[in-house]
Design brief:
With 348 residues, the chain is an alpha+beta fold. The chain is built from 12 helices and 13 strands. Helix 5 crosses helix 6 and helix 9 crosses helix 11. The N and C termini lie far apart (44 Å).
Amino acid sequence: MDDAAPRLTALAHGGGCGCKIAPALLGEMLADLPRQFADPALLVGTETGDDAAVYRINDTQAVVATTDFFMPIVDDPHDFGRIAATNALSDVYAMGGRPILALAIVGMPVGKLAVATIRDILAGGVAACAAAGIAVAGGHSIDSPEPIYGLAVLGLVDPARIKRNRGAAPGDVLVLGKPLGVGILGAALKKGALDDEGYRQLLDVTTRLNAVGTELGGIDGVHAMTDVTGFGLLGHLLEVCRGSTLAAAVESARLPILSRARDLAVAGHNTGGADRNWASFGREVRLPAAMPAWQRNILCDPQTSGGLLVCCAPAEVDRVMRLFRDGGFADAAVIGALQAGEPAVVVR
């Protein structure tokens, strides 16, 4: 950015982390409203906290629809655009779908940001969509007090291949596609405490497309799938447990964690989102008595454009891991398993 231009993150007074807090509340409020139209073709709607809506077109095709946008978490406009677009695309992949087009959602403080900066944000989004093999086919913009950017994304999926955050089976293995710690890196960046290597790690994770989700959707033994975003690993895993009426066991030693995020967490860096997450669902989680606070913070850390969380039959673990490795997800790891029991998470 031009040294004379305002920092993007300084304009984002409310912060931005790709959180799922608002969508979760939105789904609950929509479900409670009267006169909701019951459409049998709507296969996935507001009844659960799934990543996207799904609408059946015919016996072999359904439309996947999602929208996601947030305020800057980095100051480089092109990087911000790439991150926001990658994050929005992830919801289609998490349903086992394939994106087909996107529309831009743009709110910018006219007069505070240069036209060239706004253009760079849009160009970053276009670059991420091009990497996904789709076009940004239009969109809508408004004059906003703070910078906002994201996408509405449409995709396609076979109705028989939809992957939801429910439907997991006892004995399913948990596989996490990306390392944790993005929220802590973003918070450190805003405080000027993130070095070049930390920024590289942040950018690498947040701009890596979860395109492997399309292939995972074709595996019968993948029973449930979601992406880890604003609720952190524990929050999104609890959604799976509640939807599947199962308990989860997580092996903390197996969790992939970004090295710079680990260092910062040990040094005391944390996010307000992690604390809010723990306050929201901590009663449903059992941690080791000796677990240090930084590890709990990592487990609750809000992720922007986080990894896919896959619940698969033990016989499919090698295949799932091979798809992740072939897709460039070197940090993908088996982190635990699901078992019969009341919905809860036990961390060992």
